Amino acid sequence: MIRLEPRPAISGFWTYASPVTAVLLTLITGAFLFAALGQAPLEALHIYFISPIADWYGITELFVKAVPILLCAYGLALCYRAAVWNIGAEGQLLMGGIFASVIAVQFVDSDAWLAMPITMLAGVAGGMVWAGIVAFLKLKMNTNETLSTIMMNYIALNLLLYSVHGPLKDPHGFNFPESALFGDSTLLPILFEGTRLHLGLAFSLLALAATWVFISRSFIGFQIQVMGQDQAAAKMAGFNKTKLVLTVLLICGGLAGLAGAGEVAGPIGQLVPHISPGYGYSAIIVAFLGRLHPVGITLAGLLMALIYMGGEMSQIFLGLPNAITGVFQGLILFFLLSSDVLIRYRIRWASNPMKAGAA
Amino acid sequence: MKKAITTLGLALGLTAATSALAADPVKVGFIYVSPTGEAGWTYQHDEGRKNLEAVFGDKVETTFVENVPEGADAERVLTQLAKSGHDLIFTTSFGYMNATLKVAKKFPNVKFEHASGYKRDTNVATYFDRIYEGRYLSGVVAGRMTKTDTIGYIGAFPIPEVIRGINAFTLGAQSVNPDIKVKVIWVNTWFDPSKEREAAETMINQNVDVITFHTDSPAAVQAAEEAGVYAVGYHSDMSAYGPKSHLTAAVHNWNDYYVSRVQAVMDGTWSSTDTWEGIASNMTNIAPINASVPADVIAEVEALKAKIASGEMHPFTGPLTNQAGESVLAEGEVMSDGDLLGMNYYVAGVEGKLE
What we know:
Shape of chain A: globular
Oligomer: heterodimer
CATH topology of the largest domain in chain A: ABC transporter involved in vitamin B12 uptake, BtuC
CATH superfamily of the largest domain in chain B: Response regulator
Structural class of chain B: alpha/beta
CATH class of the largest domain in chain A: Mainly Alpha
Number of helices of chain A: 14
Helix content of chain B: 40-55%
Distance between the termini of chain A: 14 Å
Strand content of chain B: 15-25%
Number of helices of chain B: 11
Number of domains of chain B: 2
Helix content of chain A: over 70%
CATH architecture of the largest domain in chain B: 3-Layer(aba) Sandwich
CATH class of the largest domain in chain B: Alpha Beta
Number of strands of chain B: 15
Radius of gyration of chain B: 22 Å
Radius of gyration of chain A: 23 Å
Order of helices and strands of chain A: EHHHHHHHHHHHHHEH
Strand content of chain A: under 5%
Strand order of the largest sheet of chain B: 12-10-9-8-6-7-15
């Protein structure tokens, strides 16, 4: 008989061992799954997890895929540490993309060096405006931010569709829903010739360092953590809730907006209806997988990107359906949540269930 | 770093060289915007892929990657397909256009075919079908079968391709029943079964007794079946979803085109072309007409189909007036391809406004 017994204190060992266990269990289950599908398990795992990053192009693509997810996740983690349940990174990202595009289409034929920085700043502003509305609703109207952010995501999506079908539509595009291709002056510089890895990687590294220092070294970061763990204590200590909520939401909105701007002025190069396949939502999972810690988030974001890319490779080389991507995402989440039990509980083997029950 | 890139470039070059050897099977890749599923746009392309394997046997090898978003991911998937030795790659959604062009530049030895776009290159061809011909014919069936003279049309986005379909369908229905009115609901999505169903139910409540749609799922056919009204399918034969309601469907048929393009690669005669074919070359067709439709209507539609195939009849022939009552085509005039491609107005008889 297996019994779970609460630990007196959180296990430091399992805090780190749990994600590793989850990854190992996912790989083992994956091997069985591939075997059941008639594939050689090790070869299939190799194709899924190694072949996407087996060459330089693949490694750069891993970062191209991870950058928007990471930018959103760093910001979301700040919100979650403050117990602000922001589900709106997706909408903030889309608004960033729209704002950036409004600027970028003004510079289609220009070679002004300012074009790119202004485009990026517009993206940041777009995300901040969207998150700012949520902050206003929460602080002044006492609206639940989980609901308002979800609704704002839909509004942003419809604004995006309106933009590409209306004011931002390419005048020479035969009425198809997309903007003109952006000029070179607005595009993010490519870091390595022959790849798509762009300056967004630097933004993402900066965000990693900045959010890390902010949350662990600044006084506001400390206040945010206190508020997240105990609202009453934060109030007693006289922390300014309005300022803290506004800070985390604006930072998150700005980073998500930057992610959106980086997509339209990066790998896509124009505004289209599908600038995000749900990066803002993946980022929620990534933030929690990474324990709300910038380094953990970085690892989780890269893993998530790898799972997406592995799904593509297994379609190309193994002929497996795309559903395999969802299966691996589900497995890793499932095993992580299961392993996490060990952080707060330990397993006891009780030979006599009656006795265990009495104790 | 530089060395790694050189090695990579060398490896790419070698892959390209080996795949050009005649003895190897021709590798054909497909990239799909949605899962292959059991009906709809992507399903029809996948039927074309399976047909390639049936026709060429071990002389071809086909691969597909499904559910690829039309954003930054498309370019990576296309690059991986090109790198892994595919000779010919079909990119089957409009949103892949610019990604196709970008990847094609980097892989001049790989041939690309983009469905529904307008940008070409030396190794990028485009293709689409004159589905409006099928729309017109299915409109004739709908016009004969409606009792309320009110037909519902669910549209995805107000782009020329969709508007052309609405107008062709309306003209077909009006050709046999001048009182026909067509109500249009825009759902602003290509694929959202619950939204499509909702739109269908809304229209059924408004006296509509035939429903058709320019979206991807068979949800509207199912809604019609449950409500006991008729439906006209789109993309593929959707009769399995509405044995009683499904009158017919306007369907794409990529099989012959795909075979001819792969054959051209084998023969070394492939070149970049712009294909827009219809019923005449069997790229567009209609699904088998429901048994409940009277035989004389079926005969009427078959005769019309033969006329369209021979070129004797064009769905967009004057006199034609738009919704505002202005003349678009004079008596006997046939609309040019350019005007068809840029269509941005409703013909008279369509209800609702285009914004």
